[in-house]
Amino acid sequence: MATTGGSGVESTQRAVLFADVCDSTALYESLGDAPALALINVLFEKLGAITSTHDGTVIKTLGDAVVCQFKEADKAFRAACDMQTAAASLSPRSQSKFAIKVSFNFGPVVVKDDDVFGDTVNVCSRLNTLGSPDQVLTTRQTVESLSPGLRLRCRQLYPLKVRGKVEQVTVYDVMWRLDPDVTERDVLARTTVRNAVSVLKISYGGESFTVGPAQEILVGRDKGNDIIIESTRASRVHARITGRDGHFVISDQSSNGTFLLIDGNSREMLLRREEAVMGERGWVGLGKSAEGHGTHVLRYRLERRGA
């Protein structure tokens, strides 16, 4: 139920959706500024039309991302799937990989001046930074608000700690492809990956370190850490890396924060007493951006070994 306060402020339930172009920097470099911008504008027109079709509204654009709202979780779900299909249809036009990542979250929001605010929005924004190309992510509370048929197309991934929230947020992956053959292949591929054993290979200072699927290591300046960092930017015990449900999660425990730059993502994440899934490969900056490299930076990659 919506409640209206002063100054046009309304408290209500909404599904908030973020759709973001992946690695737009590489797209602009490979196509050139004008063609890349034209391609993204065509995409944004399609995303806007899809939003309207599902009775939603586009709130705003943030760089190469679109933020939308819907009154029902089911409508956001269907819009997210259609957005991925639309992006896939545009991909052949580019010489570079062209993909989007989408996240949506349903819950209480504050509506003011055609914009939305609150924890539901913040969680959705954080989800979007964790997504991979061609992926749709959502949360358990959103899945519980979906109709039974749509819930079957959501697969639980991992719990995530988000800044400002005491309880962890459970992340779900949405199977957005409607073609039964594609969906079946997708399920088989996911099952194969899930049955494989994943290890994380970390490179630092000319040495290589391996983190097992159920292992936990500490990273920092102190000699008691598993990986000892030779940088004053790093805290004594800076971060913890943990294998969890086939993924690897990095948890910041530092004073200066942990910077996570996942390959294929143009935006670097800054973690402050938070955690994030590390993805397939990337860079970790301890106390300073990973983009400049140096003695504060780790390189990592996920390695899958058949079960």
Task: Walk me through the structure.
With 307 residues, the chain is an alpha+beta fold. It has two domains: 7-192, Nucleotide cyclase, GGDEF domain (Alpha-Beta Plaits); 197-305, Tumour Suppressor Smad4, CATH 2.60.200. The protein contains seven helices and 20 strands. It has helices spanning 24-31, 33-53, 73-90, 119-130, 140-143, 148-151, 180-195, and strands at 3-4, 10-21, 57-62, 65-70, 100-112, 115-117, 136-139, 154-160, 169-174, 197-204, 207-211, 216-220, 227-228, 239-244, 247-252, 258-262, 269-271, 275-277, 281-286, 297-305. Strands 1, 2, 3, 4, 5, 6, 7, 8 and 9 form a nine-stranded mixed β-sheet that branches. Strands 11-10-20-19-16-17 form a six-stranded antiparallel β-sheet. Helix 1 (24-31) crosses helix 2 (33-53) and helix 2 runs antiparallel to helix 3.
Write the SSE topology.
Layout: E1 3-4, E2 10-21, H1 24-31, H2 33-53, E3 57-62, E4 65-70, H3 73-90, E5 100-112, E6 115-117, H4 119-130, E7 136-139, H5 140-143, H6 148-151, E8 154-160, E9 169-174, H7 180-195, E10 197-204, E11 207-211, E12 216-220, E13 227-228, E14 239-244, E15 247-252, E16 258-262, E17 269-271, E18 275-277, E19 281-286, E20 297-305
Parallel strand pairs: 5-7, 12-13
Antiparallel strand pairs: 1-2, 2-4, 2-5, 3-4, 5-6, 7-9, 8-9, 10-11, 10-20, 12-14, 14-15, 15-18, 16-17, 16-19, 19-20
Helix pairs in contact: 1-2, 2-3
